[in-house]
Amino acid sequence: MSDKNKVTVKIMDRDYTLVSDDAREHMQRVANFVDDKMRETYNGNKKLSTSMIGVLTALNIADELFKVIIEKEELEKRINSPQYELKSARDELDAVVSEYEKRSHAYEKMIQEFSRLIDSSNIYETGVAQLKKRMDKLDMDLRTREENLRKSRNEVLELEKEFSHKDGQSSMIDFDEETMK
Fold this sequence. Notes:
Layout: E1 5-11, E2 14-20, H1 24-44, H2 50-180
Antiparallel strand pairs: 1-2
Helix pairs in contact: 1-2
């Protein structure tokens, strides 16, 4: 018993000798706590016997202990919860990164296809531009020829008028000559 500590404490005006491995200060603090709790119970109802005060105090202390245990468990859950949430967040992040990589690969393929289409479009546009230039040249040639044709027709008409005028004069002359005969 030399390792054990021994202390005399007073609870509800009665002396008790405690023997424990705990420090004397700790045993005195526990005894003072029990004495304070028993006095609270006694002050709530002074007609209770000492044994009844002891039982009610034990129930009150047990209630406080259970509440502290529940609070401790909730705190442990809260402490562990961030770790669980962190793992969940990491898993979710991994899934998002994987999806990003898939979409990025698909996007790269789309860019390549789009570039190919742009190149095809550029070839097509170059061909269309060349055809348009050719059509413009042909249109210009056609207009020039139409203008030349119009001029030629006008010249023909002028020549016909001139010819018919000259032809008419010679006919008139011929006519006059016939009349004169």
